[in-house]
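Sample entry (325 residues):
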Amino acid sequence: MNSFFLGRRIVAVLIAALLFIGGGSRTNAAEAKTLRVLFIGNSFTGRHNLSQVVKAMAEEGNPGLHFEVTTVIYGGRTLKDHWRLGSQNIVRLATLTAEEERATIASLEDTIARDAKDTFAVSAVARHRELLKSLSKPHPKWDVVVLQSYRDDVAGDASSYVEYAPKFAALIKAQGGRTVLYETTPDTQNAAPLTAAPDPAPILAKARTIAALARRIDASVVPMSLVALQCQTVRPDLTLRFVNDGHLNQTMAYLTACTFQAALFGRSAEGLRIDTVTDTRYLDATHRDQDRDRQPLRRMFSAQERVALQRIAWDGFQRFRKISE
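Predicted structure, serialized as tokens:
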């Protein structure tokens, strides 16, 4: 069964806990629901406080919804790295035992003993020690877990993303949660305006791999390679990454948040009034209000710009949906 419209499956599986009741109508303030969402990724999730922009759009589009966000971020790391660092324990936090968490900490400490320069293992140990302290109280299950890709999804079926997303998805499914594959596209984001759209062939090939993976593990997809391609085709004047920083810029972050709305709720972000994206990395200590390209850190999109970006995100998502059918 095709599950790229997460909202429709949430209705069937989590109707008592989530957004829509009585024929798909939105809740009101008196019927507030909580959606507990875990984001696992790196700076492509951390920059711009992306999860908070997604939250703001979700709550505006679904009155009465409380979109509760938790993030597990390790800079530059892939899903394979997250597995090594024990992020799967956080996925299964509701049933995690202190014994299991101590075993993970011991394994990571052994890693550090062999390589004291493994700073990610050091960070992970600190995270897991704090997690261990909280296991004495009950933890609700996640409703949604977002698995971010990062250059680990470009080798087709041989990609480590294709290997590790199912491992995480099995844990997510076991607790009744939904998996969302957030597919980033760092290598196709343009830092300068384009005179022509890029070659779609490799982008479409990657999209088909992600679509096949999503079908196999019953996941929804935030297909940013196709959304970026859609933007580059209809608005080649727009840039999607910084010139002096390889990360998504504010425009791409806004497109990403809009695409999350399509993946989570099965509808366009068109009409939403959220209009501001602020990067989290400033130029330097004396220019904290400027981004890496010496532009304002905070970008406010006009009503016309919002409409255009919201439409581009929806059209790109719809194109991916056709590929996935």
